[in-house]
Amino acid sequence: QVQLVESGGGLVQAGGSLRLSCAASGRTHRSYVMAWFRQAPGKEREFVAAITWGGDSTGYTDSVKGRFTISSDNAKNMVYLQMHSLKPEDTAVYYCASSHTYFTANQGEYDSWGQGTQVTVSS
Question: Which residues of the chain have a pLDDT value below 70?
Answer without folding.
Answer: none
